[in-house]
Amino acid sequence: MPHIWVEYSANLSDALNVPRLLQTVQDAVIDDGSIFPFAGARTRAVPVENYLIVDGHPDNGFVHVLVKIGPGRSDAEKSALGERVFGALGDYLDPLMAQRPLGISLQIEEAHPQFNYKLNNYRDYLKARAGQRSDDA
Question: Which InterPro entries match (predicted)?
């Protein structure tokens, strides 16, 4: 963990650089890697086709970020995470917000330790890829 979902209204598809948005959010979550490990990051975008925003005007849009984290972080660490990610998200979306009605939100959830199952080998591959780069240099 962290696992990150970026939901956005489908009417923003042409206005968003989704890979850059994902990178912006993930970089803000990971920061220096001391609290939230890079090897645990899973970030995905989900366009939402069906939605109703306030008065239903077709220009209304939204971007909502959900960050699920493992247990054990202090409230201060979670608060710093929220400030950091929401700040980066706001900075990235500021030009779009200046052009159209847009709602931006962020939610942080802590996964229950007993009911959180996972299996991966990403760290092994990260280590191998780092070794390949050293060998190629």
Answer: 5-COMe_2-OHmuconate_Isoase (IPR004220), Tautomerase/MIF_sf (IPR014347)
